Amino acid sequence: IIEEGHLVGELGVIDGHRRSARATCMEKCTFFVLPKKKFDSLIHTNQIVASNLLVELCARLRRANDNVVRKLESQREESDSSFGRLQKLIEASKNINSSLDLEKVLTLILDTAIKSIDADRGTLYLVDDFKKELWSKVLQGDNMVEIRLPVGKGLAGFVAEKGETINIPDAYNDPRFNPDVDKKTGYRTRNMLCMPMKNKDKKIIGVFQLLNKKEGAFGKEDEQFIDALSAHASVAIENARLAQEMVKSERLSAVGRMASTIIHDIKNPMGTLRVYAQVMKKKSGNEEAAKLADEMIHQVDRFVNMTQEILDFTKGVSSL
Description:
Order of helices and strands: HHHHEEEHEHEEHH
Structural class: alpha+beta
Oligomer: single chain
């Protein structure tokens, strides 16, 4: 932008090349036009004009340099900021993958998200696909309690259903925000960032709900960081779940091995009881005693069959 009294088009007149820029008037202007022949004559005959032209060109060059320096400085600051976010993300990834306990992993993920974008507090919900609900564990007094809400209900439910990001810079001036929770808790929500957590297959497995950025409102950089964090968080959650399944499977295997030993020990006395019942039936000569012996044999067979089913299940022969 050039101001009143400055030149336009002087470079083309001096070097004779085609013009490299276009002048656009931002307001009503009056132009004084000097043809090239008269301009050349003035340059050669009038030292004041030549000197003023040099001053103008120097001023233009300085402004151009200043613009380049400002742009380079801006790019450097942006690079430093990007590098800082990358380092923060690497540290966050290390932190949330430091445990295989699901509850601890969820706590680490939420704490990392809150600290990384300078939020005051937040909630991390996971999606229960079977019940079509969001669930989370929150601290009430000294106890951790589980809260649940249907997918599609409230801001977190909407994000879980639609997969859209909701960034509210002024909560009480946004019709989507429900102040009832604030009234119950006494907490004052200024701004809110609600984002989906997606796994590597882009499936929504949870929702971040973060409140009250310490300075200003949540911006695009905060959204980008949480989006990147969600990829690492989903892997950590999946690893924790797999670890739990492995522990559970190992426990079942141990129970199965123990059950196999016990069942083998039980079948031997059951076989003895069955033989004794058959002997009693033959020797008694009493119809009522024979019926009782038959019932004993039937119950022993039933019990042995049940134990065999359990044994087959523990060996993987059959499914329950």
